[in-house]
Each structure stands twice: as structure tokens, then as C-alpha cells.
Design goal:
The protein is mainly alpha-helical and 104 residues long. It contains three helices and no strands. The chain has one domain. It is 74% helix and 0% strand. The protein is rod-shaped, with a radius of gyration of 42 Å. Its main location: membrane. One of its GO terms (cellular component) is cell division site.
Length: 104
């Protein structure tokens, strides 16, 4: 009996040639799977970044409210008048010592 030698690479290529549709479908499934993984990863990173930005927005909004409150407190008329009297020794002019200048 003579042993026949089979060329393995030729046999594999001919087998792939006979099953082109199945090979195409396998490749399509693999590409779709990797695309799904990529989209999921991008969605997770985008969601994470969105949450970080929302937290930063909330902290900035709280800081803005505190600054508005501080501004209204510092600009209060009675406080400004008290500081002017204490630190700058300012006082309201007396009517008798008040001088009016009229420009020509």
C-alpha cells in the first residue's frame, strides 16, 4: 500500500474556499462583537466624564451661592457706614458746617 501524502495547507485553503459564507459570517460576528465592546467602553467613559462634570458644576454652583451671600453681606449699607466711621473716621456733615459749591 502506497501512502499518499496530503498537503495540509492546500487542504485547509480548499476547505475555506468551500465554506465562504460561513467564514464571512464568523468574521462578521467577530467584528460586531469587537464593535460592541468598543461602544460599551466609550459609553462608560463618557458617562463617567459626564458625572464628573455634573459634580464639578454642583460644587461651582454652591460656591457661587456663597459668594453672592458674602457680597450681599459686605455691601450692606449699615456695614459700610460703620466701617467708614470706625476705620476712616468719616461722619455725616452737619448742616451748619456744610459748604455748597456752585459751578458757573
Amino acid at each position: 500500500m502506497a501512502e499518499e501524502r496530503i498537503n495540509l495547507s492546500r487542504e485547509i485553503l480548499s476547505d475555506l474556499g468551500r465554506h465562504k459564507i460561513q467564514l464571512f459570517l464568523i468574521l462578521a460576528v467577530l467584528v460586531t462583537a469587537f464593535a460592541s465592546i468598543l461602544v460599551t467602553n466609550m459609553t462608560r467613559s463618557t458617562t463617567s466624564r459626564y458625572n464628573e462634570l455634573m459634580a464639578e458644576r454642583d460644587s461651582l454652583e454652591i460656591e457661587w451661592r456663597h459668594l453672592l451671600l458674602e457680597q450681599s453681606t459686605l455691601a450692606e449699607h449699615s456695614r459700610v457706614a460703620a466701617l467708614a466711621m470706625e476705620k476712616l473716621q468719616m461722619a455725616r456733615p452737619i448742616v451748619t458746617t456744610e459748604k455748597v459749591i456752585i459751578e458757573p
